[in-house]
What we know:
By secondary structure, chain A is an alpha+beta fold. Chain A has seven helices and seven strands, in the order E-E-H-E-E-E-H-H-H-E-E-H-H-H. Chain A folds into three domains: 3-78, Ubiquitin-like (UB roll), CATH 3.10.20.740; 80-122, no CATH class; 130-201, 2-Layer Sandwich (Alpha-Beta Plaits). In chain A, 32% of the residues lie in helices and 17% in strands. In chain A, helix 2 (81-95) runs antiparallel to helix 3 (102-111). Chain A is globular and about 60 Å long. Chain A starts with a strand and ends with a helix. Chain B has five domains: 24-81 and 85-124, Glutaredoxin (3-Layer(aba) Sandwich), CATH 3.40.30.10; 151-361, Rossmann fold; 371-454, Ubiquitin-like (UB roll), CATH 3.10.20.600; 459-547, de novo design (two linked rop proteins); 559-641, 2-Layer Sandwich (Alpha-Beta Plaits), CATH 3.30.70. By secondary structure, chain B is α/β, with parallel strands linked by helices. At the A-B interface, strand 4 and helix 2 of A face helix 18, helix 19 and helix 20 of B.
Amino acid sequence: MSDIILQIDGKEVKAAEGMTVLQAARSAGITIPTLCFHEKLEPYGGCRLCIVELESRGSTRLVVSCVYPVEKNLVVRTRSEKVDRIRKMILQLLLAHAPDAFDLQDLAQEYGADKNRFEKEPSFCIHCGLCVRYCAEVKKKNAVGFVDRGIRKEISFIPEIAAHECWDCKECFPLCPTEALQAAFVLTKALAFSSPSLEFAAGE
Amino acid sequence: MAQINTPAELEEFRKGILSKRDPDKPCVTLCSGSACNASGSTDVAAALFEEIEKQGLGAAVDIRRTGCHGFCERGPIIVIHPEEICYFNIEPKDVSEIISETIKGHKVVEHLLYTDPATNEKIVHESEIPFYKYQERIVFGSNSKIDPKSIDDYLAIGGYSALAKALTGMSAEQVLQEVKKANLRGRGGGGFPAGTKWEGSRNAGGEIKYVIVNADEGDPGAYMDRSVLEGNPHSVLEGLTIGAYAVGAHEGYIYVRQEYPLAVENVNMAIRKAEEYGFLGKNILGSGFDFIVKVHQGAGAFVCGESTALMTALEGRAGEPRPKYVRSNVVGLWGRPSVLNNVETWANVPLIINNGADWFTKLGTESSKGTKIFSLVGKITNTGLVEVPMGTPLRDIIFKIGGGIPGGKKFKAMQTGGPSGGCIPEELLDLPVGFDELTRAGSMMGSGGMIVMDEDTCMPDVARYFLDFLTDESCGKCVPCREGMRQMLKILTDITQGRGKEGDIELLEQLAETAQEAALCALGKSSPNPFLSTLKYFRDEYEAHVKEKRCPALSCKELINYYIDPSKCNACTTCARKCPAEAIIGGKNLIHMIDQEKCTKCGTCFEACPPKFRAVTKISGVPVPPPIPEEARTIVRESKQK
């Protein structure tokens, strides 16, 4: 496999074909923030925080580095006025859901994001899908999934699978970027009130 | 039915069909598309069959239930051939008169004809009606000539001759080059050149490739793809098969929404018939080319019209777009090269092969060739599907074909391109319709939705409506779309309900930028368009809402009050009797007033006030004038004084 030379933040970076810009940057010790990325999982491209600026033939464009493949002579800027502005907005949008998440707070400081920019709707979940994808791709159990879509989307454990698989695993718990107990809470809820009729009876 | 094995056999078979058809035999065609079915076409059909029998005409008249004719405003439509006498808004009770007068008596039934609103003249023939006269219906026109359930009808108008020509007279490369030369651009949204897309797949490695029909049309008010698939499914199959041959695919999919039952039924039947006749399957027309087509019913998600989401859904997973920077014509369905075009694009292919790229490029503008079918809806006199050459000025579509705005109202804007398109204001109405022209104006072609809006439409509210739709339909995978739209919708709702704050417009602009730059798929990236285009052309309306709490179109309920002008009120009690909230104070000879506390702003009084008085008005941005003194409220009528 031939090496590809590209430029990230003015630094010459050597990468192997098939690598993403994010991988190339990290291998060279350059930080790009991510929330939905995990080395063991297929790139998801959901949080869009790893957005970077590419320069080619005099014009610039924005791409997300976790899925963009490295190319010869690519010029990448991991920070720019526009990139920072977009990251700030993404963080503000997420902080409305998880204002107290440590990871988000650190990033908010870096990018000057105001956690009170939008009205709070604390749902804690920011839909990064790490728990869902880890369970599916690494553990191959599919005990937790997404239900519904759009702004109504949420994570949910499937009681029939979770009851058998989750007690001895719980590996998804620490993956959560907003709240370590998020998955634990949803799991407990799923198992405690495993059918809609029970959920109804319990006044949920 | 024995299979047709060669182009010569096909021509022989076609001649056989035509020789059995007497062009002078009366044929009643009845529009039976989904729109006309909803307006009672099925009952009309039953009445037709019964009446023909009753009047003893059984074998002397043909009845053909066709697909959509396009003039849905006036449906159900009957056209009687060979004279092409055209009747509109047909009800079962009209049928007996049509049969006895027109079929038997060769006379025209005057009261069922179209009356030109401009000249008040009755028009007998379809082609002379302004709605049709200014159209160029190369794709959609066949709909009214054939029964979509009859493959013989399609063959009778030359169906599958393009397939025969391509498979046996042209190399795959030649087919590809012809489509490229025609510069056929995708009619589903992006306007990407189909030939270039096909070429990418053809040149991509691998034995297995796919061709796919996108029939997941989901824009509110748009139904052109639905109507083509319902009314002329073989044209789509023929185009798809030609495309498969050019690309080197042997398997095709039709992704059609489950909410289009007639389209699903008709395309399934068309596939069965095409297989039976040998236009699909092994060794098609003796060419050695094999191709099969499967139908996949979508579960009705707007996002599944996006190419990668559609393919993910086809694979049996939740329909969410993929974050890949590799085009799906190279890595698509199950990781194979996959060409996805929408219904209308595929339906254009047989025409290009039969008539040649030079014929096709004669129509249209520099960068947009051929015709485009639009779904013309909203505040327009002639609602329906229209097909015009690219380059036709928007003004002609609205006024010549669409008949203008009903009720003497003024045109305000036209939303094109579906929910993620944009609004075109009156000053741009001379814009020739085309992919790049509309994009430059801040809107887009999209799949061809055209929603006409009049002076009573509030533009911030239009943006709110489309954002509401898009928020509901967002897949929720990426933050700029899911969370950005959630906030945009909230702010727009606040603005239209009088809770707009200083800085809201700027915040909306920032959210729009985030979505445009950072959203995962094309739908997410274009989701702020309804806001951006209305802001571009109607910024003053946004500012009036935010700063003055005023709705200039007098449409936003929370920002208006109904008020009875005491100088115009004649105390006729019409409004008072109709008010469901009992909010109107007044009686005989007593000028009416609205109790603003009780008023629910339903607008009943506004509608009820007799046009000769027009005393009920809407006001916005100003306080309701104080009630007039009690002693001034009594009306003393002159007639009573005498």
